Amino acid sequence: MFNGDELPALTQDRLDLLAKMLPLYPKQARPLDLYESNFSSKWLLRVDTSFDTWWVAALFNWEEEARSFSIRFDSDGLKPDRRYRIYDFWNQRPLGIARGSITIPGVASHDCKVIAIRENRPHPWLLSTDYHLTQGGVELGQLSWDEESLTLSGVFIGRRAGNAVLTFTVPETYAIRAIDCPGAAHQVTEEGVRLELTGLGGEDRSFKLMFA
């Protein structure tokens, strides 16, 4: 970590990286490979909110060569018989759906992967945000799905100035019909819908995604 460095000397990229860790989430991640090496390389954080529970894994490669990481879905509330959507936070891309375990190949030497693990749902739902490492743990105040109106609605808490991208998964049986979020841009992608909130300045933003 570099948050003990002299902040005025940090590059903008480093400051942006630090901002994604703030505010601090009140719960701690736990090591999955304790006592297996001098430095734990696999960490798992369970994120609990009023609207959902999901997991964020941090995979640190301390070695001089690229390596793979595996995580079994058998602890901290993860269920081996459930299907989970996997998302790569730093690269902002989906890694598919997994059951029982996941394997993340080719993590470069002295690199780190941050992976979101969310239960697969039969309706549109949040997949990730690029705003905070928890990907919704501190920046989403509310999220709900209404089956009758086929509407996904939520409140984004803009804790700092800048922009944010919210990525939603959309099953093939749904199609986006309209979006209600003033000042936001959206893009339909293979994984679903990306909603970009611009001009954040500490205020909350409500959003609705309506489907057919």
TrEMBL record:
<dbReference type="InterPro" id="IPR041233">
    <property type="entry name" value="Melibiase_C"/>
</dbReference>
<feature type="domain" description="Alpha galactosidase C-terminal">
    <location>
        <begin position="55"/>
        <end position="115"/>
    </location>
</feature>
<dbReference type="Pfam" id="PF17801">
    <property type="entry name" value="Melibiase_C"/>
</dbReference>
<dbReference type="InterPro" id="IPR013780">
    <property type="entry name" value="Glyco_hydro_b"/>
</dbReference>
<protein>
    <recommendedName>
        <fullName>Alpha galactosidase C-terminal domain-containing protein</fullName>
    </recommendedName>
</protein>
